[in-house]
Amino acid sequence: MRNLRNLIFLTSLILLTVSCGSSKKSVTATAGEDWTILFDGTSTENFRAYGKDEFPDTGWVIENGTLKVQGSSRGEAGGSGGDIITKKKYANFELSLEWKVSEGGNSGIFYLAREVPGDPIYKSSPEMQILDNQRHPDAKLGKNGNRQAGALYDLIPAVPQNARPAGEWNQVSIIVYRGTVVHSMNGENVLEYHLWTDDWKEMCANSKFRDWPNFINTAEEGYIGLQDHGDDVWFRNIKIREL
Known about the structure:
- The strands form two sheets. Strands 1, 2, 4, 5, 7, 10, 11, 12 and 14 form a nine-stranded antiparallel beta sheet that branches. The protein has a five-stranded antiparallel beta sheet with strand order 3-6-13-8-9, with no helix packed on it.
- The chain has one domain (25-242): Exo-inulinase, domain 1 (Jelly Rolls).
- Strand 4 (60-63) and strand 5 form a beta hairpin.
- The chain has helices at residues 2-22, 198-205, 213-216, and strands at 26-30, 33-39, 47-49, 60-63, 66-69, 84-86, 93-101, 106-113, 127-131, 170-177, 180-185, 188-194, 223-226, 233-242.
- The model is unreliable at 1-32 (pLDDT under 50).
- The protein is built from three helices and 14 strands.
- By secondary structure, the chain is mostly beta strands.
- Helix content is 14%, strand content 34%.
- The protein is globular and about 45 Å long.
């Protein structure tokens, strides 16, 4: 009996050790689906500043287990930190994270982004909008709500529009698979579109993106980016799985 108890104890200890060791790199969302943690609440090692080798010295901080961009009230001019991107490029993936925004705040999640010298990230990258729909004027601009939270910015609105108010957490995901892109917000798919198709090119040709070739000819592999738009925004539980 003592030997049996010892065996059970040792087996439990081994399983616990393996579990703790592996949790630093990935988390299993559901059986058979391994996720890579991009931000674990303590380290920014998976990100760097857009156009630079290191993470920004100012403008971005870790606060109570969240990754926070600190507002500067400069709007389009952004803050002192600038946009950040992943160190790794991704092609086919599911990105999952949570965000909350300050009152009147604006930000975005970029994907398939390039680093083009002299160009800001938004000239090459589709963007999932982050916004306080109740207060920020962008919510009333564009067409049919295509600048509100969850939208493919300035192109396709999020339907249903189910973003939570400023100060509350929103859970979102972005799936990219061989050109098909799906935005989900708070448990619902809110839009779908298809890169590189005639419909995509026509949509871009009728938008402010029509003169941005790196946007229209979106990269097949690129960076994930988080925008510094000059407002307080918090991110947490940032993870990705490659498809």
